[in-house]
Amino acid sequence: MTVAVAIRDLGVGDVDALMALYEHLNAGDVPPSQEAVRAVFAHPGLRHFGLFAGDALIASCNLVVIPNLTRGGRSYGVIENVVTHADHRQQGHGRAVIRHAIEQTWAAGAYKVVLTTSRKDPAVWAFYEGCGFDSGDKRAFVIRRT
């Protein structure tokens, strides 16, 4: 029996499923407050996409499209928090949700999409390159609050 797979925008009602999925991204992460959840889902330009197999959320990423004054005023997108449930990896679900986010970025008129990862595994890097990202195009620098 084949289970229907669909990608859709996530909303506040999907938070429990999303938090459970995020355990496969950052196990043991402290869950956000209800106020933080409401603020995140109310943020203009920020979207969370979920790939569902039947009723189960099995892959997700988020996308923010940022207005810009360079490049002719064209915006750019940033994809973050890419995750696929461990039981569903290597089946194309992560690639599908990323492709969906990229398509939404182009539909918003953006000229580029940026994705960063903290993963050091070359297989993860190869996965993102297989999705069309160029690891040699830009260099990312990160500073974290102590």
From TrEMBL:
Keyword Transferase recorded: yes
Entry-linked PANTHER family: AMINOALKYLPHOSPHONATE N-ACETYLTRANSFERASE-RELATED-RELATED (PTHR43877)
Enzyme Commission number, as recorded: 2.3.1.-
Key words, A-Z: Acyltransferase, Transferase
Residue intervals of the N-acetyltransferase domain: 5-146
Enzyme class: transferase
PROSITE patterns tied to this protein: GNAT
Record InterPro entries: Acyl_CoA_acyltransferase, Bact_Acetyltransf, GNAT_dom
Domain of life, per lineage: Bacteria
Name assigned to this protein: GNAT family N-acetyltransferase
